[in-house]
TrEMBL record:
<keyword id="KW-0560">Oxidoreductase</keyword>
<dbReference type="InterPro" id="IPR002347">
    <property type="entry name" value="SDR_fam"/>
</dbReference>
<dbReference type="GO" id="GO:0016614">
    <property type="term" value="F:oxidoreductase activity, acting on CH-OH group of donors"/>
</dbReference>
<dbReference type="InterPro" id="IPR020904">
    <property type="entry name" value="Sc_DH/Rdtase_CS"/>
</dbReference>
<comment type="similarity">
    <text>Belongs to the short-chain dehydrogenases/reductases (SDR) family.</text>
</comment>
<dbReference type="Pfam" id="PF13561">
    <property type="entry name" value="adh_short_C2"/>
</dbReference>
<dbReference type="InterPro" id="IPR036291">
    <property type="entry name" value="NAD(P)-bd_dom_sf"/>
</dbReference>
<protein>
    <recommendedName>
        <fullName>NAD(P)-binding protein</fullName>
    </recommendedName>
</protein>
<keyword id="KW-0521">NADP</keyword>
Length: 215
């Protein structure tokens, strides 16, 4: 049996020491290792830290804006400026069902994830081929994936009491009442990255076991 070709990966572990420089660092690494081209950009990094309304500091607010809005914008800006995106590329922003199931402890997380969804709608409109400035990447799609309760290390490390609270909140709303697994989300992202999803752009796709239902 022939082995499957290994997808080349960009290893940036330990290299992005200053977040304000990460766009340049990523683009420089693409130039070195991937012949100055990119076909798929998935933004899954975020700042999920809770913040109590009435007690948040300017630094906490700025941290959320930096991690969830400014950084993905800077990365896409740099890659577009250098014309690294190829025709029919894919941009995926990992969002959260918190954008539609608000919680008073995650004001900035929910609002900045909503901003990410808005970014994708604008990128979709710009990069599809209608705008002359971006015809070098025509056919590019941009979509968000709204992720629900997922059994990640970060969730489990919150402790059994918090995990039980999450279950009590999310499971009743889900059509499939269980924890999502990382591969459940990864498969949705993989679908959007493939050729079969070439006609899907500017959308929010729910990967939440039916926790939110987007028309």
């Amino acid at each position: 049996m022939a082995s499957k070709p290994r997808i080349r990966e960009l290893d940036l572990a330990g290299k992005v020491a200053v977040i304000s420089d990460c766009a340049t660092t990523i683009a420089d690494s693409l130039a070195k290792s991937f012949d100055s081209r990119i076909d798929i950009f998935v933004n899954s990094a975020c700042d999920p830290m809770p913040g109590t309304i009435g007690q948040m500091t300017a630094a906490e607010i700025q941290r959320s804006l930096l991690g969830n809005v400014q950084t993905p914008v800077l990365i896409v800006e740099e890659l577009v400026r250098r014309r690294y995106f190829q025709p029919d590329s894919r941009i995926i922003y990992i969002s959260s069902i918190r954008t539609r199931q608000p919680w008073h402890m995650q004001l900035m997380y929910a609002s900045t994830k909503s901003a990410g969804e808005s970014l994708c709608r604008t990128w979709a409109q710009a990069f599809g081929g209608k705008e002359e400035a971006y015809t070098f990447m025509k056919g590019t799609t941009a979509n968000s994936v709204a992720v629900g309760l997922t059994e990640t290390e970060a969730v489990v490390n919150c402790g059994p009491e918090a995990v039980k609270q999450f279950q009590d909140e999310f499971f009743p709303a889900q059509s499939i009442p269980r924890f999502g697994q990382p591969e459940d989300v990864a498969d949705v992202v993989g679908l959007l990255c493939g050729g079969d999803a070439r006609w899907i752009t500017g959308c929010v796709v729910s990967a939440s076991g039916g926790g939110i239902k987007i028309a």
